[in-house]
Design brief:
The protein is built from nine helices and 19 strands. It is an alpha+beta fold. The strands form four sheets. The chain has a nine-stranded mixed beta sheet, covered by helices on one side. The protein has a five-stranded antiparallel beta sheet with strand order 9-8-10-17-14, with no helix packed on it. The radius of gyration is 34 Å and the shape is elongated.
Length: 552
């Protein structure tokens, strides 16, 4: 589960801006055999936000065909020019390029590997292992392009039980169990974070009384890191530079206290060492105050975590309302009612079109027309164009509604899967066992604790200023401490030992950690750039590319 939360943090991104320009989306559909062998791949491309006239696109697809319109195109190598009517263009084709994520699947029955074609109808303990290989390596940055993979499979509860999913979760839904997992092949090789080492492999285990083959769906995207706020990472780098200043200040304190202790052994040299040591302590205290100022600024940014918790909780409750509509049938009824209404209205337009066509035919048969008849004919022709356009819009709307109606049964499981992920994240942040413990009061208490933490750091920062003032007074009065110099000898020895221990067991470890975080920050910046610069599978100008594998 720790791997899941770390991957979630890596993938958290901002909402993209909506810019008015031609947008291109690639959806790569691949069917795989049960061992992961690719059987067929087709690519659907959507061009949207386009205007009338010649629209230039670039693609390496072969056997291109228009899926939903009559727009024609011409081709010159990879350059494709469409005769646009201003409507979205959907086209399909194929390409011989290999897929960026390679899947291999192995099956085990009672601990022994077995051919999936020989396991049908058998009973026992089943283990299915998905090994994912990222083949998209960028040699300029010596890193893999960061793909995130969602794997989902549905099982019949009649014959199957006791599910376990690595890097994921199984959810029982009455007669079915949905198993979903997240993987990120290549992410460990990119970051060398040990907690991410198993994200190129997913295991699903369960017990069965009668094995049946199940379909698995893989949804893969390279874009989840494309909107990481790099300014925040720059701020982190800036704050980490202060750790080195804190280390330098601590070293100065250690050095000063050593000098103070050694100087107190001899009376005359002791007073001088005391003054110098207090001066170093004063300088270190000022650096400590500056460091606490940066820490104070950093803790104030924790308020953004409260915003994240609010958004996740609102999304969770909204998804529950959507599920209620789907399970009650209200959503399905609304879609059916909308389809029926649109069909009736389309039929009415078609009847009107028949009347207009009859009027046009009647006028055209008259031969030479006078001015009034010519105007009437042109009016009818204009009405014909408007009616045909309206009928086309209704046909597209009905087709889209029918498609949504067909996808409605699967939407329930997707929403349930999304809510399961949200609940894991929320429960992890809030520190509760499950969502039954999450309510508005718990959210409010969590936010209040965050605000108390921020207030506590503010108080610590204010106290450091008072400490600095006190050290200044102590330094000014150090010349009056000659008579007590012998008593201070033991105190300076203890001070020296304590500062050395602080430097050895505290500050040095903080410096090592800051260097590690700085290294991670630079790698995240590169991963974000690779994700942002990803421009397509079968082209170099795609705004968004999604891979969907179906293993069956």
């Amino acid at each position: 589960m720790k791997k899941f939360y770390i991957l979630f943090i890596f993938c958290f991104c901002l909402i993209p801006l909506n810019i008015r320009a031609m947008s291109k989306t690639e959806t790569v559909y691949s069917t795989l055999d049960y061992d992961g062998t690719v059987k067929k791949t087709t690519i659907n491309t959507k061009l949207s936000n386009i205007e009338k006239g010649d629209i230039v696109d670039y693609s390496r697809l072969d056997n291109i065909r228009n899926l939903n319109g009559n727009e024609k195109f011409s081709r010159e190598s990879s350059k494709i020019t469409w005769k646009s009517t201003g409507k979205d263009i959907y086209y399909q084709g194929v390409v011989n390029d290999s897929l960026p994520i390679k899947v291999s699947v192995r099956y085990y029955l009672n601990g022994e590997e077995i051919d999936p074609n020989k396991i049908k109808g058998k009973s026992g303990s089943i283990k299915i292992v998905f090994n994912l290989e990222n083949t998209d390596y960028n040699y300029d940055y010596n890193m893999y392009v960061p793909y995130v993979v969602d794997i989902t499979g549905t099982f019949n509860n009649k014959n199957n039980s006791n599910f376990y999913v690595s890097n994921g979760k199984s959810v029982s839904l009455g007669e079915k169990t949905v198993c979903t997992a997240i993987a990120a092949p290549g992410l460990y090789e990119n970051t060398r974070i040990s907690e991410l080492s198993g994200l190129d492999r997913v295991e699903i285990t369960y017990d069965t009384t009668k094995y049946e083959k199940n379909e698995f769906h893989f949804v893969i995207t390279p874009k989840l890191l494309s909107k990481v706020d790099l300014n925040k990472l720059d701020e982190v780098d800036s704050k980490l530079s202060n750790v080195n200043a804190l280390s330098d200040g601590t070293n100065q304190l250690v050095s000063g206290s050593s000098e103070l202790h050694n100087g107190m052994i001899q009376f005359d040299e002791g007073l001088t060492a005391l003054n110098e040591g207090l001066k170093s302590a004063l300088e270190g205290s000022g650096e400590l105050t500056n460091g606490l100022y940066e820490v104070n600024r950093g803790t104030n940014s924790l308020s953004s975590l409260t915003v994240l918790v609010d958004r996740l909780y609102e999304t969770y409750k909204s998804n529950l309302q959507l599920l209620e509509g789907i399970e009650s049938g209200a959503t399905e009824q609304q879609l059916i009612a909308g389809i029926n209404k649109a069909t009736d209205e389309k039929n009415e337009l078609e009847n009107n079109l028949l009347q207009v066509n009859a009027g046009i035919l009647q006028l055209e048969q008259l031969g030479e027309l006078d001015e009034e008849q010519t105007i009437q004919l042109n009016t009818l022709r204009y009405q014909k164009e408007q009616l045909e356009a309206g009928i086309h819009q209704y046909e597209n709307g009905i087709a889209e509604a029918q498609a949504n109606l067909a996808m409605l049964p699967g939407a329930k499981y997707k929403i349930l899967g999304a809510n399961e992920v949200i609940s894991q994240v929320l429960c992890g942040i809030l520190g509760v066992e499950d969502m039954s413990y999450v309510n508005d009061d718990v959210i409010a208490m969590f936010k209040e604790n965050i605000y108390k933490l921020v207030g506590g750091v503010n108080s610590l920062y204010e106290g450091s200023g008072k400490l600095n003032s006190g050290l200044q007074e102590l330094y000014n009065g150090s010349s009056k401490l000659i008579e007590g110099s012998k008593k201070l000898e033991n105190g300076t020895s203890t001070l020296n030992e304590g500062l050395n221990k602080l430097n050895r067991e505290g500050i040095s470890k903080i410096v090592d950690l800051s260097n590690q975080v700085s290294n991670y920050s630079s790698k995240i910046k590169v991963l974000s750039k690779l994700s942002k610069d990803y421009s397509g599978y079968a082209s170099d100008n795609s705004n968004n590319t999604l891979f969907i594998y179906k293993l069956s």
